[in-house]
Design a protein that fits this description.
single chain, 3-stranded mixed beta sheet, 3 helices, 25% helix, elongated
C-alpha cells in the first residue's frame, strides 16, 4: 500500500508539471488508468489516524489495517496472537503487506470502471467513466487526427 500511494503522489506531481508546461487553451490533458486494483480503504477511521497504522475496531478485537486488498500475499488465514503483534510493529515498514482476503502470490487487477479526468479543448467529451477503447477516439477527434474532422479549422489554402 505504501508503494501504491507513493505512485499516486508521483502521478499527481507529473500532472502538475504537465499543467505548468502546457496551455489549457491548446492542450487536451487526459488522466486515467488502464485498470483498477483490488485495493480498498476500509472502515471509517479517525481522520487523524495514520492510514498505515492498524485500526483496532474489528469485531474480534484484533487490529486490522485500514488499507487492504481483496486478494494478495498479505492474506493472514489465522489471526493468532502473533498476528496482532506483527501488525502493530510492522505496518509502518515500506515492505509490509496489508491485509488481503484471499491468499495469492500477488494482488490482481479489478474489473470496475476507472475515472477519466480531462482539461483543455474538448475536455467536455470525457466527464466520467468510459470503455477504455473510447478514450483514444476522443483524443484523435480533439487533435483533428484521422477521420471525422468536420469540426477542425481548415488549414488548406484555397
Amino acid at each position: 500500500a505504501f508503494r501504491a500511494l507513493s505512485d499516486t503522489i508521483a502521478l499527481e506531481e507529473a500532472v502538475a508539471k504537465a499543467d505548468q508546461m502546457t496551455s489549457i487553451e491548446d492542450t487536451l490533458m487526459v488522466v486515467t488508468a488502464d485498470h483498477s486494483h483490488v485495493f480498498s480503504i476500509g472502515g471509517g477511521p479517525d481522520i487523524n489516524l495514520d492510514i498505515y497504522s492498524p485500526d483496532d475496531t474489528g469485531s474480534d478485537g484484533k487490529p486490522y489495517t485500514t488499507l487492504a486488498y481483496a486478494n494478495g500475499p498479505g492474506c493472514k488465514i489465522d489471526h493468532s496472537p502473533d498476528y496482532t503483534t506483527a501488525v502493530i510493529f510492522i505496518s509502518d515498514n515500506i515492505d509490509f503487506l496489508q491485509d488481503a482476503g484471499v491468499p495469492m502470490k500477488s494482488e490482481t487487477h479489478a474489473g470496475e470502471d476507472v475515472a477519466v479526468f480531462a482539461r483543455g479543448p474538448m475536455a467536455y467529451l470525457l466527464t466520467g467513466t468510459y470503455e477504455q477503447s473510447f478514450i483514444p477516439h476522443v483524443m484523435m477527434y480533439a487533435a483533428c487526427i484521422g477521420e471525422n474532422k468536420q469540426h477542425c479549422a481548415s488549414t488548406d489554402a484555397a
